Amino acid sequence: xxxxxxxxxxxxxxxxxxxxxxxxxxxxxxxxxxxxxxxxxxxxxxxxxxxxxxxxxxxxxxxxxxxxxxxxxxxxxxxxxxxxxxxxxxxxxxxxxxxxxxxxxxxxxxxxxxxxxxxxxxxxxxxxxxxxxxxxxxxxxxxxxxxxxxxxxxxxxxxxxxxxxxxxxxxxxxxxxxxxxxxxxxxxxxxxxxxxxxxxxxxxxxxxxxxxxxxxxxxxxxxxxxxxxxxxxxxxxxxxxxxxxxxxxxxxxxxxxxxxxxxxxxxxxxx
Length: 271
Known about the structure:
Layout: H1 2-29, E1 31-38, E2 47-51, E3 57-58, E4 71-74, E5 76-84, E6 87-96, E7 101-109, E8 112-120, E9 128-134, E10 142-146, E11 149-154, E12 163-165, E13 168-175, E14 184-191, E15 195-204, E16 207-218, H2 240-266
Parallel strand pairs: 1-7, 9-15
Antiparallel strand pairs: 1-4, 2-3, 2-5, 5-6, 7-8, 9-12, 10-11, 10-13, 13-14, 15-16
Helix pairs in contact: 1-2
């Protein structure tokens, strides 16, 4: 009788622990990641604020042509607000999906800025995934070129689909349709195996037109960093905290089974 009570208590304890751990792991997945690319020529440094379910998120200030690091934000409906010199200069309401990564590009609009949201892709081991985005207001329609290949003709705000390319050094360019002379060009662009990358063309209105190249995601390194944790989640998957919780859950289940076996061994007639 005592063994049955002990076993029931143990089972309830394990079930309770599992429910807590699974709830925490579920919360870890229920998040997205955002970064800001400042593409407003002549604009002051700006900060992106994200509000939705949970506490508001603020990304660091960045100047023209640069991007923030990714910051975690709650998934679901979110209000994106761009602030410069203490004033709101752009605002957008977006829906963010669980586990997704996004780049918010601020471009000129009237006397302020418009915010454009681009979903960032995942990498493929051994290859580069690559796309281009038109974010230069005065460039008009242009052919975007990788090496000798036209990736796509883009208008302002448009993005090409991701395509794969062999790792290596390439020249990228944007040129008017039907012309060979590039409007903007960048040589020796390194496409790294196991990454997803985006080239944003930014500038005009007094700022030199150029490419801003950002890494969207990378596969985890084959050898763990010295911390043993830093490589987890680099491919846009669950954060390392979720992996630790899953390990804790496995440990709890294993411990419960071990204690149950020991109890039966101590009372063989009840087995």
